[in-house]
Specification:
By secondary structure, the protein is of the alpha/beta class. The chain has helices at about 45-50, 80-85, 100-110, 115-130, 145-155, 175-190, 205, 225-230, 235-240, 245-255, 265-279, and strands spanning about 5-15, 25-30, 35-40, 60-65, 70, 85-90, 165, 195-200, 210-215, 220-225. The two termini are about 40 Å apart.
Length: about 280
């Protein structure tokens, strides 16, 4: 992981209208280049609002947001910011515009006037990276939800962003679709060094991140590695959040008197701890 900073929010406040409460209330946070950060929080906590500040869809009422040191309020740098930060939203149908997969992935590049030879290379690379290349000649409406989401991701990756923001990008998918999209995300992060910020409700997804931020009422209230955050089961429950099922099971077994570790976050870790007890 590069220690250079990708994103920073400094004392960011934002509200949707003057008579409404702050949706984001004094947030300070940063993301390093190459890092995978998950942002958790109950509905209405401000996590999606914050995410839209990172490619200048929204601008802060006060405070600053920077992308690789560029202030998002600098209108002359808007194109540069959106080249660096790509967003993938909850509903892939809202991001798919063409009738053939590869045409959809090429759409933004054609609008930007990228030379045809480079477009060909970029869309092929992006479809390979997103695991959708074999479906390149299909109509998007004939694909599954997970495949459509990977087409949307390929369209963003073709822009060659340094950072990918996923705003509840797996929320409409079944468990298998979610797993395949997360595999794609991990691949992009680990193998290509793309910075990932994932806004999610799914604790098993957050457990795969390098770091977790927990938001409540527009503020960041908890931060740490997945093990550090999910160890605080009672605090998370008070914030109306779940923990990974493996963590929940280990906590219940500890409460029943078994010597289980307090930092199980995956099924494998839980199984190993049980195997050790049984041995």
């Amino acid at each position: 992981m590069d220690n250079k900073e990708m994103l920073r929010a400094s004392q960011v406040r934002f509200r949707y209208a003057a008579d409404l409460p702050l949706a984001v209330d004094g947030v300070d946070m940063h993301v390093k280049k190459g890092e995978f950060v998950a942002v958790l929080g109950a509905n209405g906590c401000g996590k999606s609002t914050l995410s839209k500040h990172f490619n200048a869809i929204l601008l802060p009422e006060s405070g600053t947001v920077t992308v690789e040191g560029i202030d998002t309020r600098d209108k002359e740098q808007l194109y540069e910011i959106r080249q660096k930060v790509g967003m993938v939203f909850q509903n892939p149908d809202n991001q798919i515009v063409a009738t053939i997969v590869e045409e959809d992935v090429a759409f933004a590049l054609e609008n930007l006037g990228v030379p045809p030879d480079e477009i060909r290379t970029r869309i092929d690379d992006a479809m390979e990276m997103a695991g959708i290349y074999k479906h390149r000649h299909k109509a998007p409406h004939k694909l599954s939800g997970g495949q459509k989401q990977r087409v949307a991701i390929a369209g963003v990756i073709a822009m060659r962003p340094d950072c990918l923001i996923l705003d509840e990008a797996t929320a409409m998918l079944d468990p298998r679709g979610r797993e395949k999209v997360m595999k794609t995300i991990r691949h992009l992060n680990h193998d290509f060094g793309i910075t990932v910020v994932a806004i999610t409700h799914y604790m098993e997804e957050a457990a795969q991140a390098d770091r977790i931020l927990v938001m409540s009422q527009g503020r960041v209230v908890m931060e740490g590695t997945p093990k550090e955050v999910f160890r605080q089961v009672d605090t998370l429950h008070q914030l109306h959040l779940d923990v990974p099922q493996a963590t929940e099971l280990a906590q219940q077994l500890r409460a029943a008197g078994l010597d289980m570790p307090d930092d199980c976050i995956s099924e494998e870790e839980c199984a190993q701890a049980l195997a050790s007890l049984l041995a």
